[in-house]
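In the current project phase, we have settled on a layout for protein records. One protein thus recorded is set out beneath this paragraph:
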Amino acid sequence: METIHVHDKMQQNYSYKLTQPMWENFDPEFQPHLTPKQMLEIWVFWWKYMTDCQDEFPVDRWENAKLSPFKKNPKINFFGVDASLSLKYWQEKWRIYHEDPRGWFQRYCRYYMWRRCPDDTRQIKRRKAIKRHWMALVKNCHSMDRDCRTKQRQALLHRAYDSRKI
C-alpha cells in the first residue's frame, strides 16, 4: 500500500499508510451521504479550511471547492449560516486527534482516501450522535423547507449527512 507524506506547517514529517481501497470497506456504522469532494463543492465549509494542506489530497477534490481564502464567511455556506465552533474550541476541549489537527473533516478526507487509525471508532460515534439533528428536522420541518432549522441543516452537512434532502 501507498504511504502519504505530509509536509505542512501543522504536521511536519507526518506520514500514514493507505490501507483500504478508496470509498470501500467503510465501517458499517459509518455510511456518509456525501464524499469530501461533494462537501467542498456545495459550500459546506465557510472558512479558510484546509487551504494550507491541499497537496495531500487528489487535485480534483479542490477543483470546484467553495472556500473563503482569507477569513470566515458564513454567507457562502450552503444554508448561509454559521453552524460550527472554531478549531481552537475543539482543540481546547481535547476533541482533536493529534494525527488530524484540522479536525473531523481532515480525518474524513484521510479515511475516504484509505487511511484507518485508532480514532476512527470515536469519530464514528460522534458522527452518529449528530443524527439527532436529522430527526429534529424530520419532526419539526415541512418536507424540503430549506429555511427551517438552517443551523441544524448546516451542521449535518458538516458531518456528511445530506440535509438538503429532508
About this structure: The beta strands are 3-6, 14-17. Residues 3-130 form one domain. The longest helix spans residues 104-113. The two ends are 39 Å apart (CA to CA).
